[in-house]
């Protein structure tokens, strides 16, 4: 018996409780499950069918064959898992013993449901009256074994955390915090793991200063785009809860106050000596700097001067006539209609170019650096016409707007470029912080 069969059975129960199904549909499901060797699901489906229609012979027949096979397959899986989890081997042992507990619950549930259905079905055509299965003691023992495994797992990660703390460097404290966090999954606040996690997390946190990017492009139509990159990058990093668990970003106000106090400039052109000096004053481990070298936009509007003609045969009127039986009738009159189509196109393009660096304060080493060339294209295609609208096949113009639209401003396109760029930068920086 494989665990997937049990999952299938649970799904069947959920479906049965959530939706109204006929006895025949449950029987069909029972047949399919039995045919594939999933005797647990077959038994549950047969029980569901008999609850709706107790005299359903096919459901009785399937249950008479599937039930004992189902219980045997579950017990077989339990025995296999007991053998595999006899000795503690870490997280895997906990998972195996959790599966054992779940399987015993399945044995009890199947036993109860089949017993209940045997009381409902009067004078069955097939034998569906089985001996009750008592696994109460074994079930309780499996819970004890699971709790023992959880305690061993908690102790294992707790010990790992203590060992990492002894190294007393930032990366080791970070690993210690992760270990204490896992310990609490098994036993909440195991041996004060919550306090130890907080202490290790604090000592394992990387403080980052994001300098305002330098705008070397000498353009102002896009607003304070260099500052926008820094601010949006900070916001994107804050959204990543996993990365921020061990990351602290110095706020712009705090950064500005310290820089002003020491009369320093936030320049992208830092050397090894200045990086260490800035890092010491700011109390940070990493400095991110960058510059915008180009930001530009262009707008273009094109209208086709030479329109093209389209036509369609449509109803243009009706006329009266006398049919063969002498009765007055009317019929549609068809004719060609024409229109001249003027296709129009408007595009706006913006480009943002520059570079950024991620610097390690302690060594002055460049942890990551990259050039970026981010572009954004906005397009508005529409058409106008002269003539009879009925001649136009609108399905041909599905990608067209129905009218001319106002293009985004340079400022708006700049914001879009910044948003696209900082998402990519945040991924690069997040990977460094893992």
- Write down the secondary-structure element order: HHHHHHHHEEHHEHHEEEEH
Tell me the number of strands.
7
Q: Which residue ranges are poorly predicted, with pLDDT under 50 across at least 5 consecutive positions?
A: 9-19
Q: Number of helical segments?
A: 13
> What integer value in Å does the Rg equal?
36 Å
Write down the overall mean pLDDT. Answer: 89
Structural class by sheet pairing and helices: alpha/beta
Helix percentage range: 40-55%
What summary fits the major beta sheet? 7 strands, mixed
Which percent band covers the strand fraction? 15-25%
* Structural shape: flat
- Determine the N-to-C terminus distance: 40 Å
General description of the model:
With 434 residues, the protein is of the alpha/beta class. Among the domains are: 3-134; 154-204, no CATH class. It contains 13 helices and 7 strands. Strands 1, 2, 3, 4, 5, 6 and 7 form a 7-stranded mixed β-sheet that branches. Residues 9-19 have low confidence and may be disordered.
């Amino acid at each position: 018996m494989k665990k997937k069969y049990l999952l299938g059975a649970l799904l069947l129960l959920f479906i049965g409780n959530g939706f109204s199904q006929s006895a025949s549909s449950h029987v069909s499901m029972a047949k399919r499950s039995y045919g594939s060797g999933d005797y647990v699901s077959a038994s549950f489906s047969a029980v569901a069918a008999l609850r709706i229609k107790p005299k359903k012979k096919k459901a009785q027949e399937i249950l008479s064959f599937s039930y004992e096979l189902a219980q045997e397959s579950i017990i077989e899986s339990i025995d296999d898992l007991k053998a595999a989890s006899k000795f503690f081997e870490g997280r895997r042992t906990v998972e195996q013993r959790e599966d054992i507990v779940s399987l015993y619950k399945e044995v009890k549930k199947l036993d109860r449901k089949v017993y209940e259905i045997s009381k409902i079905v009067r004078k069955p055509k097939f034998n569906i009256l089985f001996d009750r299965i008592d696994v109460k003691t074994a079930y309780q023992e499996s819970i004890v074994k699971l709790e023992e495994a959880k305690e061993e797992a908690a102790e294992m990660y707790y010990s790992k955390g203590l060992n990492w703390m002894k190294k007393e460097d930032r990366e080791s404290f970070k690993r210690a915090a992760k270990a204490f966090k896992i310990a609490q999954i098994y036993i909440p606040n195991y041996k004060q793991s919550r306090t130890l996690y907080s202490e290790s997390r604090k000592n394992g946190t990387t403080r980052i200063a994001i300098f305002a990017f330098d705008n070397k492009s000498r353009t102002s139509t896009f607003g304070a785009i260099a500052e926008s990159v820094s601010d949006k990058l900070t916001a994107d990093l804050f959204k990543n809860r996993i990365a921020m668990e061990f990351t602290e970003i110095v706020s712009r106000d705090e950064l500005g106050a310290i820089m002003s106090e020491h009369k320093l400039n936030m320049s992208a052109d830092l050397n090894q000596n200045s990086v260490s000096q800035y890092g010491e004053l700011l109390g940070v481990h990493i400095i991110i700097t960058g510059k915008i070298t180009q930001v530009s936009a262009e707008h273009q509007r094109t209208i086709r001067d030479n329109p093209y003609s389209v036509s369609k045969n449509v109803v243009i009127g009706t006329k009266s006539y006398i049919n063969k039986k002498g009765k007055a009738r009317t019929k549609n009159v068809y004719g060609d209609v024409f229109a001249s189509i003027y296709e129009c196109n408007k595009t706006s393009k913006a480009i943002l170019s520059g570079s950024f660096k991620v610097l390690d304060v302690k060594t002055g080493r460049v942890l990551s650096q990259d050039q970026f060339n981010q572009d954004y294209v906005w397009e508005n295609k529409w058409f106008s016409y002269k003539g009879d609208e009925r001649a136009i096949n609108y399905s041909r113009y599905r990608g067209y707007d129905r009218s001319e639209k106002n293009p985004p401003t340079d400022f708006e396109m700049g914001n879009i470029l910044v948003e696209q760029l900082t998402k990519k930068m945040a991924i690069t920086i997040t990977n460094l912080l893992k």
